[in-house]
Amino acid sequence: MTRSLQLAGLLGAALPAAAGAGVLPPDPAETGPLAPRIAAFLANQAAVRDDRPTGLVREDYLRVIAGQVRVFRGHQDADGRILDPVRSNECYFATPCHAHAVAALAAGGMASEPGVLESGLLAMDSATRDMAAGTAAGGHGDFFTWPVMLALPLYDGIAPPARAAEWTNRLARIDPAKLYRVRTDANNWNLVNVAGEFLRGRAGMTPPDYVEACLGAQRKHFTDLGMFNEAGNPLPYDLFSRHYLAGMLHLGYDGAHAADYRGLLGRGAWMSLFLQSPSGEMPTGFRSSHHIWNEAQQAVLFEIYAAHLGAAGRAAEAGAFKRAARMSLAAVKQWIRPDGSGFVVKNRFPEAAQHGYETYTTHSAYNLLACSMLAQAWKFADDKVAERPAPAEVGGFAVPVLDPFHKVFANAGGTQIEIETAGDRGARQYNPLGLIRVHVQGGHPQLGPSDGCAPYISGAGVNRSVAPAWRRPDGAWVRLADLRPGRAPEVEVLREAPHEVAVRVSHGDLPAGTGGVVRLISTYTVRRDGVTVEESIAGDVDAMRVEWPMLVFDGRTRTGVRLEGSAVEARLDGRGVRFAVLEPAGVVLRREGREVPHRNGTIDTVLGEAGTRRIVWSLTAAAQRGSHP
Hey, what long-range contacts does 419-422 have (CB within 8 A, 24 or more apart)? Predict the structure, then answer.
């Protein structure tokens, strides 16, 4: 049997026999700190009466992929490389991900359009040639092996045998020391190449020593909640790292570290389920947030656990993961351009603007990375699993994720908030202190807002969150969003019920700006119809101000704004939110009049000043009545 046929056998079954016990998440009672919340969720899920499925099916993954492939094969050179339409060169892992995307289309019977199959074969030619030579584009060979090894068996019986044999021969000649840049436990790159090396090992191309050594070394980066942490505490790379390991378990990893990672990844999978927003989005947090591959990787993880839980007869849990996977896919579909490619980052600027991009973000590589992830979700999905309500829809919980991610999440009835308790530190600052996300049931998620504003995206000196400021005796204002307190605040979960969740965050010893300190207490009450926040402050201050960063432009459309007295409504694409100061009476809101960049577009901050030390405000969905106030 050839190596490619061996791998084809491994990938052919939805649930490889060797993987079943290795990936099945633990019983909820075995999940440690999450156990009470999982048990409460399952009870609340059973009580849901309005349980309408998303209507999405497995083939919808391929439909999104097909549109992306149609665009990017138009940017393929004669050697098979995918050239970025903005940067005019081959960027990182675009070519191997394109090869994998086309392989999924071919295996799924959706590559009949002229030229599609050949574009995938050419991409495999190019990628495997570079892998054997150790000359991957941009030194990103770490990211080549996994998609190429996943593509190889999908092309079995489709690609000309001689061509497929040459790919296999090249893959067997890989020298990890030449191809991979990160062969230690430094960051997520190592786990990406480990997953690829695992598949090479399964195909008989390499011994397991490297994989086992790296898995042992990476263990220290995992928290008790099963989350992966690296420098800066980026939430996208927590799940990015975990979804590769979950794929390994699904495809039969049963080495020395299998039992340990089974438990860790099971807890991490539940964490991802609780942190998903009701709009299907991943939480925001540090670099690479708001990229559509964030939701694509959610789909992979959730499909894996839905399949295994379904096979084990745990229908309620399986259905929650299935629904969450489909919600993730629906979130991706919201960000597809008219030509079929993705917006990459959740705004609607032209791709040439590269708005909200990281220095490493590219149109081709990150769209095709999302396609490779969707191809995995398609392959791993089991449509026999019926959808059931997901935690993001049911709510009834608060999840502090304080060490090391310094965030608090709360959800009631499908309205979610995300609180930043520390603010990013160091040279790159993405998230300020305060409330950085509000996704209101029936509102517009990007208007919520969906992210905070900090200097890395918005410019020097710009920090904005939904948070108060206070006036010093000398008349100067101090923003909570500008501060980086020396110690963590106290976080108390006051109530957890399906209809209402309440959390209190108490900051002590914040600088008053005159040598003294202030104490700020913020109480967040979340209900299905919106969020109410009470801010109170003690110390040498004589006034408070509430601030709401309002998205005013998404790159294509200006937000409709109606500002009247103590309330403001903002509307975009037929949906809207309403921000209002409830106490004290008589607060008049005004716009700051300074538009600054934000990952989702541009914002202007709405301000409301009160000569008190206490302010109560609310954020709710606006009545549906068209696209403008």
Answer: 419/503, 419/505, 419/524, 420/452, 420/465, 421/488, 421/489, 421/491, 421/505, 422/484, 422/485, 422/488
367-401 pLDDT, tens digit each: 999 999 999 999 999 999 999 999 999 999 999 99
**Of 324, 402, 383, nearest in space to 62 by CA:** 383
Question: Could you tell me the domains of the chain?
Answer: 3-11+57-387 (1.50.10.10), 393-621 (2.70.98.70)
Q: How far apart, in whole angstroms, are the C-alpha atoms of residue 319 and residue 327? A: 12
Task: Please count the other Cβ atoms lying within 10 Å of the Cβ belonging to residue 17.
Answer: 8
Range name among 21-25, 125-129, 590-594 with the lowest pLDDT average: 21-25
Report how far apart, in Å, the C-alpha atoms of 52 and of each of 44, 56, 387, 440 are: 16, 11, 9, 19
Other C-beta atoms closer than 10 Å to the C-beta of 600 total 27
pTM over 0.85, yes/no:
yes
Residue 186 pLDDT = 83
303: pLDDT confidence band, cut at 50, 70 and 90? Answer: very high
Please determine, for residue 463, whether its predicted confidence score (pLDDT) is greater than 70.
Answer: yes
Residue owning tokens 């059973």: 46
Q: Measure the CA angle with vertex 222, ends 221 and 223; round to 5°.
A: 120
**Residue 123 in 3-state DSSP?**
helix
Asked whether 439 and 453 are in contact (CB, 8 A), the reply is no
Omega of the bond prior to 584 within 30 degrees of 0, cis? yes
CB-CB neighbours of 440 under 10 Å: 29
**What's the Cα-to-Cα distance from 394 to each of 2, 46, 282, 313, rounded to whole Å?**
49, 10, 17, 22
Look at 29 and 538; give whichever has higher pLDDT: 538
User: What average pLDDT does the segment 589-615 reach?
Assistant: 97
| Contacts of 196 by beta carbon, 8 Å cutoff, 6+ apart | 142, 144, 145, 146, 148, 149
